[in-house]
Here is the input.
Amino acid sequence: MQQDVVPTQGRIFGRPRTLSTNLLLVMVLLAITAAAISGIATTLLLRHYQGSRLNQDVLASVQRAVHNPGIGTGPVPDGFGDGPGAARALGSQTLTAYLVPPTVGTNVAYVTSARGEVKSLSSADLAAIRVQVVNHPGITTITLPGVGTYRLATAKIGLTDGSTIDVVAGLPTAQLDEMTRKLVLWAIAIAIAVAVLSAVAGRFIIARQLRGLKTVAAVAHDVSELPLASGQIEGITGVPEALADGITEVGQVGFAFNKMLNHMEDALQVRTASEQRARQFIADASHEIRTPLAVIRGFADLAERVPEGEEEALRGSIGRIQGSARELSTLVEDMMSLTRLDSGGTPSLGEVDLSEIAANAQEAAALLYPDHGWAVELPPTPVVVVGDELGLRRVITNLLANAGTHTPAGSTVVLAIEPVGNRVRIAVTDDGPGIPTELLERIFDRFVRADQARTSGNGSGLGLAIVKAIVDNHHGTIAVHSDAAGTSIVADIPVAGA
Here is the structure.
């Protein structure tokens, strides 16, 4: 047994995930991503800008160190002038180092605090600075234990003896690092705030936007609960017009759903009507077949009881049996013809001369109903259509037989064939008493017959139903007009109608 499966967009911890949850997750994720990208970009841009300014300050510091009054053009004494005093003059929070060749003097390095205090760097710090300067001659960054991280720049001073001094000056990166840290924290805080706000606002917006989709889903659920298998078509309500505008996404879904409902309702109505016609056809056919079968059985029983020597009575019974058998055979043949027409099988198509068929059919009707007046009206040139010759022949024959059967002796029947545009009109008109009003609407239904007391025959009630089926298969139309002055049945067949 097939089980109902609920489609899901995904799962959260093993549970189904709805479309609204998916949209909310995507919205929050996009908001966090946008906030993160914005925060990272802002941090990098500001750090680059502040780093550029720091580099400019470092270059200015190294230039001040080069022009230190303690530096001359002659042999350089130890301490380069007044030592700490010269370092203090270069500015607060400045690292200054003079890397001197061993033959010239001694390396010195100082760092000043924000309060102007001067601290001499150790030999290990000097060694680390020399290695950094040698490996990275441009602007570089170095971290010294107990001192901090500094951005350094280097310049060279040439002495008169041909030797050079590496002058190193730098500024701390503490402010730049602190600014970066705060920007990162702010970016994280903003991303969290954006995520929360987008989740709250997104839930409200998505719920509002998907409200129409939930209405469509509710309508679909109600339709799925209807007993459609039994032909129940009442109670089908579509999506409201406001949600079926065909413009928005929900409107397109609602419009398509309403269109599907209309098609489904039409299909159910057609199926229900077809089933009702089939049941009615079976009931009518059973009723029609019962009468000749009863006659055959009755006269067959009577024939068995006819005494010897009563050949005339026996022949009468056999004649009645044969008549009922012919009636039954005609009825079965008509029913089979309707079945074939209903099945929509492909007939044998070709060019059909309706003028010739009409002339032959009129002659045959005059022989079958000699007490009627018969006339045929044909154009001077043959009227040719593309269609099923046997079917079109039966249309004309049945219409004439219907007029001959259901009009009293002495009536006049006129068969007319007339081209009208791209169609051919077949009209059979009589001057009989007309068709009762209550039968006009059902005249082309199956097993519908006029009052036998007002007619000269007893048909099966399938003749006009067969005519309409053949005309419909030729994409034509048929109509009946009747009053006390007579009846006219008109069929219009396209020239290429099959």
Observations:
- Residues 249-304 form the longest helix (56 residues).
- The chain has a mean pLDDT of 78.
